[in-house]
Write a structure and sequence with these properties.
With 212 residues, this protein is mainly α. The protein contains 11 helices and no strands.
Length: 212
């Protein structure tokens, strides 16, 4: 559970769907090493496209930050995003994957949703950012203890279940408490719930395919 009251309320509002994140076949199979290579390759290409859009979304959110502390906290995420992109590009090159292929509808829709949330203001977009990052941290942390470290998937499990990533996610929860001291607005709750549904669809799209 998050350290922040607002974050805790957001999580409690979608507890059923949130629990499905850590038990999604994509996550559990990546953790135990049984995930088919074709599935992982499909996810790697899709998530590279997503992270490129995510970095642009984060840049927009920094410009909306109400003070320098919030801006500094958000901007601290750029280093991790660059490391993720480097990892994706390195792995794609080793696997002979084309990162420039046309994204599937779920990937395109999720990325567009991120950017569009900026139009709803700082508080809503911050809830979106927290939801996306918290979803990854909770899901990959669940499988970390039993993950097979000799597989190609371990660097990804390790990246999103690390102590450093946990710290940044906790700092984002703190920003939520500052921006919404009276609790999350209906718009924040709606956006956060949409993030959870997109995350589940994103992993399902990688697991089963997502053609136009």
């Amino acid at each position: 559970m998050s350290q922040g009251t607002v974050a805790a309320e957001l999580l409690a509002g979608c507890s059923t769907s949130w629990a499905r994140l850590a038990t999604h076949p994509f996550i559990t199979q990546a953790g135990n090493g049984s995930l088919r290579r074709a599935v992982f390759d499909r996810w790697l290409v899709a998530d590279h496209y997503f992270v490129v859009g995510f970095r642009r979304f984060l840049s927009g959110l920094v410009t909306l930050a109400p003070d320098e502390h919030a801006a500094d906290t958000l901007a601290a995420g750029f280093g991790a995003l660059q490391a993720e992109l480097d990892l994706f590009r390195r792995e794609a090159a080793a696997r002979g994957l084309d990162l420039a292929v046309d994204p599937g509808p779920t990937t395109l829709g999720y990325t567009a949703f991120l950017r569009s949330s900026l139009q709803d203001g700082y508080a809503v977009a911050l809830a979106v950012l927290y939801g996306a990052e918290k979803a990854y941290f909770d899901a990959w942390s669940t499988v970390r203890g039993g993950a097979v470290r000799e597989t190609d998937y371990w660097p990804f499990v390790d990246n999103w279940s690390s102590a450093a990533f946990a710290g940044w996610v906790a700092e984002l929860a703190g920003l939520l408490d500052v921006v919404a001291p009276g609790g999350p607005s209906p718009a924040m709750r709606s956006a956060f719930d949409r993030v959870v549904r997109y995350e589940l669809r994103f992993w399902s799209a990688a697991h089963t395919g997502d053609l136009w």
